[in-house]
Amino acid sequence: MGLQVVGEISDGLEAVQKAEELRPDLVLLDIGLPTINGIEAASRIHQSVPGARILFLTQNDDPDVMRAALLNGACGYIIKADAKSELLPAIETVIRGDKFVSRRLERPNPN
After folding, report:
1. How many structural domains comprise the chain?
2. Does residue 91 fall inside a structural domain?
3. What's residue 1's pLDDT?
4. Residue 17: partners with Cβ closer than 8 Å, 6 or more residues away
5. What is the pLDDT of residues 26-58, one digit of tens each?
6. Which strands, in side-by-side order, build the sheet including 74-79?
7. Parallel, antiparallel, or unpaired: how do β-strands 74-79 and 100-101 relate?
8. HSE of 91 in the Cβ direction (CA atoms, 13 Å)?
9. Residues in the chain, pLDDT under 70
10. DSSP per-residue codes, 21-34
C-alpha cells in the first residue's frame, strides 16, 4: 500500500478547506481541533468530498464520541494509545471501504 501525505492542517476549518481543495482518498482527523471540532469537520468533509474516507486518531475513548464520529461520516476510529498496532490495519480497512474501530471500543464497557 503506497501512502502519500498531501496536506497537514492545524484546525478543523482548515481540514475542511484542504479536503475540498486536495480531494484526498483518506483524511486523518483528531476530535479536539480548534475552530470546529473533528466531528463537525468530518461531517462537512463527508458532505463536500463524499469519496474521502475519514479516519479518527484520537485520545478520546468515549464510546458516545466514537458513535457520533461514525454517524457524521467517519469510517474509522482509533485510540492513539493503540496506534502502533492499529493504524496501518485501520488505514487499509478504511481505504477498502469497510469500518474500523479500536479493539478497546468494540467491547462493551463493564461499568
Report:
1. 1
2. yes
3. 62
4. none
5. 999 999 999 999 999 999 999 999 999 999 999
6. 26-29, 53-58, 74-79, 100-101
7. parallel
8. 16
9. 1, 107-111
10. HH--SEEEE-S--S
C-alpha cell at 44: 462537512
The CATH number of the domain holding residue 17 is 3.40.50.2300
- What pLDDT does residue 111 have? 45
**Cα gap 99→41, rounded to integer Å:** 19
By three-state DSSP, how is residue 4 classified?
A: coil
> Does residue 3 sit within a domain?
no
Give pTM, 2 decimals: 0.90
Cβ partners under 8 Å of residue 55, min gap 6? 26, 27, 28, 29, 74, 75, 76, 77, 78, 90, 91, 94, 100
Cβ(44)–Cβ(20) under 8 Å?
Answer: no
Calculate the dihedral angle through the C-alpha atoms of 23, 98, 67, 62, rounding to the nearest 10 degrees. -100
Residue 38 covered by a domain: yes
Determine the structural domain holding residue 22 and report its residue range. Answer: 12-102
For residues 30 and 57, give the distance between their C-alpha atoms in angstroms, rounded to a whole number.
5
